[in-house]
Amino acid sequence: MTDTNLGIAVHELHKQFKDGPKAVDGISLAVAPGEIYGFLGPNGAGKSTTVHILTTLLRPDGGYATVQGYDVVKQGAQVRASIGAALQEAALDPMLTGREHMRLQTALQGLPRSTRRPRGNELLERVGLIDAADRRVGSYSGGMKRRLDLALALVHEPRVLFLDEPTTGLDPQSRSDLWREVSRLAREDGVTVFLTTQYLEEADVLADHVGIISRGRIVAEGTPEALKAEIGRPTLEVVPVDPADRQRFADVLARFGPAASSAKPSAVAVLLEDGADALASVIRGIDADSLRMDSFQVHKPTLDDVFLAKTGESFAQGDQGASASSEDESLQPAEAPA
Amino acid sequence: MRRFLDVTGAVAWRTIHHFLTQPSILVPSLLFPLFFFTAFSGALSGVEAIPGFDFPSGYAAFQFAFVMLQASAFGGVFAGFSIAADFESGFTRRLMLASPDRRGILAGYAVAALFRAVVVWVMLIVVALLVGMQIDGGALDLVGLYTLAALVNVTGLLFSAGVATRLRTMQAGPAMQMPVFLLLFLAPVYMPLELLEGWIHTAARLNPMTPLLELSRDFISGQPADLWAYAVVLTMFAVLALWALTGLRRAERAGG
């Protein structure tokens, strides 16, 4: 597929902020039309910087990128006409109502006067805000603001939609509502969606393809299933009743595969070489040594395991380690997931 | 061009909407010029008796010209505050993402600044006529006066927009306000240039606002007007337009 046929094409993109590390360090990716691409990484990994470049808000230092076949540096106006974007901090005016935002956005996007009001109402209806349309946005909840932001991004029926951490800070219900709408846009309307997220589950559920970014570089790319299949084997995690028994547990488990990392400091984990078939043998081995377990859990491979395998650190560690690695993102405090 | 105007219209609509619906913006905008006019023309009317003060239309008209220019300049500067606030809140990103030609954003703020100035002008002239201010200039003089005021308004906006697009924070407020304040008050505000003495006379003589103020007083009193003051304001306009546009480019490079 050539760049002109792709929704998004990125080649060796670079961006470094003044006196800072490289926020984007040679990223290349391709997103087919109508596809949802999940750009997954911890805070400060370079996700937002990439989105800002692709939406023409920032200029790259090197490399090039096209959106709907338009060069993001040389054809900024055409790119902006093709895209909708809901960025990390919903850029809303607390003194305007939802309907007034629609009026503003439809005018900014140059919709014919006669279609502005009906289009605004249609989108407010679609995101469930029609009853709150005449309230000032300052009184909206976080979820309502996100939905309004999404509706605003859609007024001109863009072919490519950028969503920068769209569900950060949302409650589970609002999050699943937003997931449903994003899926519908891609499946029914054929909109190409570039979605950044720090939630593994979100990328797993929504994305056709996932790019995992760490410290400005893409460390893994593929479908969520393919990425997890690369890791292949499940992980067994055991928490001893007596923490002093950790080493004895580790010795027993070592017979079934290499040690694995665990998020719980009290746990001992192993990557099961023979898969789940080895579980009965593991239990027999623990029992034979008269060891007592507090908990025993088998994890199927997750995108976190992929991240761990590719970067050598867990997603949470990556978050801490990279939190100051990007000038723009380090300025944005991460909100705790609901 | 149509898309440029779409953006200009949308940005102007929002800024005017804020001006008209938020008393915290509207009321001071109307009260301050009125206060300056009534306070200066009332409390300082004795200046008329000073030998050498020969303004034919009276002290109220003498002050009216200054308050007109002051309100116009600050109307532009306050639009710069809106620009800075939008950068600080991130709203500018919405505008930048939707604008094929981002100069339309600046044009929108300029239209809103002009609207705001027109509202103040209308209120000022109504009050001035009610208190019996004498206008000796003809219709053409008044057109000249309001054109000059409009140019001062947009020039004020261009100056503050240049600051706002470079600093992109509300903390830029004093940097927008102070230079304009100094220029205005180092002009012959309370008495004619000829009656000023010492350093203040030198400062006023070199101040580019002085010819604009004197021209506006000539218009209102119907005296022969020295139109070269237009060259001064048009030069300021051109230089500050460049200042604002380069600031916009800088803000674009910084990501809005």
From TrEMBL, chain A:
Gene Ontology MF terms: ATP binding; ATP hydrolysis activity
Disordered, as annotated region: 317-338
Major subcellular location class: membrane
Protein name: Efflux ABC transporter, ATP-binding protein
InterPro entries, per the entry: AAA+_ATPase (IPR003593), ABC_transporter-like_ATP-bd (IPR003439), ABC_transporter-like_CS (IPR017871), DrrA (IPR005894), DrrA1/2-like_C (IPR025302), P-loop_NTPase (IPR027417)
Key word ATP-binding present: yes
SMART domains to which the protein is assigned, alphabetical: AAA (SM00382)
Alphabetized SUPFAM superfamilies for the sequence: P-loop containing nucleoside triphosphate hydrolases
GO cellular component: plasma membrane
UniProt KW keywords: ATP-binding, Nucleotide-binding, Transport
Species whose genome carries this gene: uncultured Nocardioidaceae bacterium
GO biological process assignments: daunorubicin transport; doxorubicin transport
Family: Belongs to the ABC transporter superfamily. Drug exporter-1 (DrugE1) (TC 3.A.1.105) family.
Position of the signal peptide: none
Keyword ATP-binding: yes
Membrane topology recorded in Swiss-Prot or TrEMBL: Peripheral membrane protein
